[in-house]
Amino acid sequence: MQGMKRKVVYASLFELIAIGLTSSLMMFGAGHDASHAGVAAVASSSVAFVWNFVFNSAFEAWETRQVTRGRDWKRRVAHAIGFEGGLVVMLVPLFAWWLRISLWDALVLDIGLLLFFMVYTYIFSLTFDRIFGLPASAQG
């Protein structure tokens, strides 16, 4: 699977799973009620969905220009850090506003989510590539 279809399937699966995980983490881990946690999870997943397309398009454009093909652990780590790092910039103000917490508390919350999602992004991408194959940008 390649091109736009791959991006839509990847982002949709990633975010559907992420909504369930994020709302659960915010409810049980941070003590927020279900309605606030659920809306925050859907909003953050919406932002992440758009960011997913933007970031993965840029990453694959960069990847296409690399001499070494494939996705070793270093490239996967770089992908996860880049993707999640961009989300921090966008989501901290959103969490602070919606959950009515300070920017510091939102950053702490987001760092907890970030650490979890760095691992999740790495595992999800690896699993997705094993099931659906590498994108053209990573193929030899």
Automatic annotation (TrEMBL):
Pfam families reported for this sequence: BTP
Q: Which InterPro entries match?
A: BTP_bacteria (IPR007896), PACE (IPR058208)
Source organism, top-level taxon:
Bacteria
Report the residue ranges that make up the Chlorhexidine efflux transporter domain in this protein.
3-65, 71-133
What are the entry keywords? Membrane, Transmembrane, Transmembrane helix
Looking at the UniProt entry, the stretches that span the membrane are 12-31, 37-59, 80-100, 106-124
Concerning NCBIfam families, the annotation shows: PACE_transport
- Know the name of this protein? PACE efflux transporter
Q: Name its species.
A: Duganella levis
